[in-house]
Every structure is written in structure tokens, then in C-alpha cells.
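Two proteins were folded this term; both appear here.
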Amino acid sequence: MGHWRTLHLFDDKKFYKEVVPALKGESGNLTTDCLEFLESHVTGGIRHLSQPDINNLVEQTIRKINSISNSLDKTFKTNCEYQKNKDYDSEILFLNDLDGYYEFCKFFEYYIFKTCSDFLPHLPLGKGGVSRNFDINIKTLSYSILGDLDSWNEFLCGYGMGITNWLTNIDVEYLYLDKENLYFKDNEIAIGFLTLLEVAHYNELGFIAGVDMREERLELLPNNKLLKPEVWTNINTIGLLWKR
């Protein structure tokens, strides 16, 4: 069971211009977002806490989020200290010792879909990635780009749950220009992906992928942040999921 993967449209320009600076504590204020996150993600909620305790919990959580965010490189994908670990056991030990790591990963997932990605509509990938739905020559650009998208960022998807990777709108543009190499037969996931690729290309958006995310929470966040509903009116939505 588990390892349910999904693919979503993603505004990478907003992510790097607004979201990353907010996560690093360089701009904006995460207090309201963090409070909403804690109310919905902490087991048992936080309503039983006193207001001073809630304020303290929010401040501590934001401090940890800022710290871990500032440990990542400019792509926001790589923690150099984590990369120094040579095996799985040392990686897990590093993450277990990283204060606030699990909360960071869950907040990152939540904040992405609150600000710069819509959870619905999305492409359900099941237990595999995008590339397995196509017959792609390993020498093509498409093979390389989809390989990057399908690979898991082990640091960001805490303990195998959360955001696994993303493509920028530039990556999507290159993929779109090479789409003739995306061969498939009788595959609704492949059809759905090509639909998303077309939409992302014309709207200068990227892709973001996740695994075993808290769908019941993310579905409640506002949608249509990236595209107006009418954009989808005359689009073939085979393979895409609109609601559960």
C-alpha cells in the first residue's frame, strides 16, 4: 500500500519570487499560515492550548521552518550537509536529528498548495512516475526531463511523504518542444499528462509532484489560483482528476 503519486500545475515564478523568501524569513509573515497549518495538522488540534502557548508554538515552528529553508541552495532542492551522507542509515539519522524536519516537510507541502499550486485538477499517477507511461528513447531530452521529475527529492519528501520534485516553466517548455518523442498506446495517464503539458506550456507554468500527501486537507485549500475555471471548458480532461 502507499506511494500514491500525483502531478499538479505549479507557478514556479511565484514560488521563487514570493514563497521561498517567505519560507526563509526574508519577506512576508508566515504567522497566519502557520497557525492554520497547526490547527489542521497537529494531532488533536491546538484549541485546547492557551493563547500564549499557541503563540509560542507558532513562533517556534516558524523559526524551524526558516532555519531549514535557509539550509537549502538557490534551487530549494538541495541541503549540502544532507548530501554528504553516504548511505541510507546516515541519511535517516541526519533527518531525525534535524530539529523540526517533519513539520517543515508537512508545512512545505501545505504552503505550496495554498500559494502557488492547485491540488485539483491533477493527474493521478498511482504508484509510478510519468515516464513509465511512455515509450521514450533514452537519448532524448524528454527522457532526461521526465527522469528528473520522477526522481524523488529525499530531503523534501519527509520519510517518503510530501513533495517529491518539480519542473520549472522553462523545463516544461523544453519538454513541450520535444513532445514528439513521447510515444504511448491506449494509456489514459499519458493522455492526461499531454493535456497538462499543453495547458502548462500555454500558461507558462511548471509541474510539481508529490507522494502520499494529505489529500483530504489539500483539497480544502482554494483552487483556481493559477487558472480560471473556464480555461478547462473545451479541454479533453481524460485521465485528470477533478474531485474525489
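Next, the second protein.
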Amino acid sequence: MTKKTTETMSKGTLEIDMIIAFILILFTFYICANIESQTGDSLRNSITLQSETALKIARSYEVLSQLSDKRDNEITMLRLNMLKPHDVSLRTYTGYIYGGEPHSFCVERAVYIKDLNEVGILEVC
């Protein structure tokens, strides 16, 4: 082989090595981007769930304060039926006496129902 042929083969090998290295680098970036995307989605879902939970807890305090009669956790059926809060259920040991079984995540609060002289669970969804 002549010197020119050896240089040409060397350059050809060098170009193929560079192309393979470039493809491997692109593939590595692609994998890293996918991992980062999945991590971001997981974090976003976690924050959304925590935010939703915090809002429901705050709403449960709001509903309970609207329904309470003088003391915390003491409610009356009269006030519950007058205000008719949305996505709220009240159940006792015998079953639901206001609203119905919830279809989503709810915050449960123990309450005393003055009208019935009974303990119940207020579910705010």
C-alpha cells in the first residue's frame, strides 16, 4: 500500500468512528431526557396529589365551621339541610343520613350531631 492509500483508509476509519461516537452520544442524551421526563412527571403528580389533599383538608375545616353550632365538631341537621354543601356526606353507625357514599378521596371528620344526640362522620370530598 502506498502512503496515500493508508491515509485515505485512516481518514475513512476515523470518519466512521466519529459517526458511531456521535450516534452513541445522541442515544445517551435521548435516554437521559426520557429519565428526566419521567422524573418530572412523577414529581408533578406528587405535588398535584399533595395540593389536592391540602385543599380538601382546608375545605373540611371551612364546611365544619359553617355547620358547627357554638362548639367545634358539633353540628345540627337543620343547618346541614339549610346550607346543602356540595360533595359532603354525613354518616352514622346506621348508615348515611345526608348525601351518599363518596366516589372520590374525602376527608373524614368526627362530629356530634346535636339534633340526633349521635356521633357521626362528616365526609368532605
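The first helix runs from residue 3 to 67. The chain has two helices and six strands. These notes refer to the second protein only.
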